[in-house]
Design goal:
CATH superfamily: MFS general substrate transporter like domains
CATH class: Mainly Alpha
CATH architecture: Up-down Bundle
Largest sheet: none
Order of helices and strands: HHHHHHHHHHHHHHHHHHHHH
Strand content: under 5%
Radius of gyration: 21 Å
Distance between the termini: 23 Å
């Protein structure tokens, strides 16, 4: 007979499950505290602009981030064992912290602005490799260490409360970038020290996340997740599974919305006639405050609805943010960042759809493929920067990039309705093949 503290359908006790929920939320919360720079895009674009970069170059850190999101897939094949999960997570967090520290040091070093811009792009590359990998491992941890019945609780806590931490961090970063810090500084921070404070101040947060990772409890796999399958063969197998292939197309199209943030930030200069860095903290604050509200509501909704609903709602919010950016002038334009932040949760609910379809033995590979889906979306950032740079009227160029982005997102939503069932797989027995790509590959026993 199972103990009173252990779930009949899960190998971990209720207490262990609860600790996993808390650690998952804590690591996610630390990521959100560092969001002004870990969410590569707006802050990096403002910094590059100050260093003399064009809109195309200002988009490169964000593009570099998305290009490197193939790293989780590579690591999933090199180190498939569940036993390495926590150690790999710690290494990822430490790498992200090191890259932030390098930017802070280079900004005050006697080097050219080109070198400083290169350091910012490097931070995008390192963050693009390390943070999606850490997030994919966190997804695996919650997939293995928390039963599906409690997953809505974990997501609601992590992505409901977490964005409010990012909201506070964004306000703090704005005070630092403006050189004020609510009047507490004896002398205002001037460039580049304001950016040094923002980048350097977030590095310890990643060290704390690295220290928390080993506290996760991961049940041993019934069949260790070691596969002799080659990378290309595994990718073909993934894309040959109809439900996963359809979800991949939808996810890539919707992830293109993640590449428009640099242009949204730079448009501020055209609409408000002020430097973009004077508003980037407020933009992030609106972004994460609304993400927090939406995260709480969507986490609650997930416990009462279906996985596809989260994709559709967040995708519609993404489109609404672009519509706002296109048509609303003046300071009211800034509210586009709030709507956008809520829509960014498509990065939670698209992966959740694939997680719901994945068999236990394929969770790491499948969730790694989800993070890799950001890589095909990466060139859109360069495209949007080129569109903005290629018109005589900069404001009109940015609006055109918003129109194109919105059109792509609408196509993704139409395909989601047409191709994805509300539930990605029927309920199945616990005695299912752990190496099937998705749970629907295995019939009821």
């Amino acid at each position: 007979m199972a103990s009173a503290t252990q779930s009949l359908e899960h190998p971990l006790s209720v207490a262990q499950q609860t600790r996993n929920v808390i650690v998952f939320a804590a690591c996610t919360g630390l990521q959100y505290l560092a969001a002004p720079v870990l969410y590569v895009g707006m802050t990096q674009a403002s910094l590059c602009k100050r260093l003399g970069a064009s809109p195309v170059v200002a988009n490169l850190p964000e593009m570099a981030f998305f290009v490197m999101t193939v790293a989780p897939v590579v690591l999933a094949w090199w180190f498939p064992g569940v036993a390495l999960l926590r150690r790999m997570m710690s290494i990822c967090y430490l790498s992200a912290g090191l890259a932030l520290g390098i930017v802070a040091v280079v900004l005050v070093a006697p080097v050219s602005n080109d070198v400083k811009i290169a350091a910012v792009i490097l931070q995008g590359l390192v963050s693009g490799a390390s943070m999606p990998t850490a997030i994919a491992l966190l997804w695996e941890a919650v997939g293995r260490g928390v039963p599906e019945a409690r997953r809505g609780q974990a997501l609601g806590l992590a992505f409901g409360l977490g964005p409010f931490l990012a909201f506070a961090a964004s306000l703090l970063s704005q005070e630092l970038l403006s050189g004020r810090l609510w009047g507490l500084l004896s002398q205002p921070l001037e460039a580049p020290w304001n950016f040094v404070a923002v980048f350097g101040g977030t590095a310890p947060l990643m060290i704390a996340a690295a220290a928390l990772s080993p506290l996760l409890t991961i049940p041993p796999a019934d069949v260790e997740n070691e596969t002799s399958e080659p990378f290309i063969g595994g990718l073909i197998r993934f894309l040959s599974t109809p439900i996963l292939a359809k979800a991949t197309v939808v996810t890539i199209l919707l992830y293109i919305g993640n590449t428009i943030t640099a242009n949204m930030n730079l448009q501020t200069e055209n609409l408000l006639s002020e430097a973009a860095e004077n508003y980037v903290g407020y933009q992030n604050a609106l972004r994460f405050f609304c993400k927090g509200i939406a995260g709480l509501l969507l986490g609650w909704m997930l416990t009462r609805s279906n996985p596809r609903a989260g994709i559709l709602i967040t995708g519609l919010l993404f489109v609404a943010s672009q519509a706002w950016a296109i048509f609303v002038p003046g300071k009211a334009y800034l509210f586009a960042f709030g709507i956008y932040g809520a829509g960014e949760l498509v990065g939670v609910y698209a992966p959740n759809y694939i997680l719901s379809a994945s068999a236990p033995g394929r969770i790491r590979q499948n969730m790694a493929y989800v993070t890799m889906m950001m890589a095909p979306a990466a060139p859109a950032g360069y495209l949007f920067g080129a569109i903005a740079s290629g018109t005589a009227d900069p404001a009109a160029g940015f609006r055109l990039s918003f129109i194109i982005c919105a059109a792509i997102l609408v196509v993704g939503l139409v395909l989601a309705v047409a191709l994805l069932p509300r539930w990605p797989a029927p309920a199945v027995s616990l005695n299912r093949d752990p190496h099937a790509d998705c749970v629907s590959d295995v019939p009821e026993s």
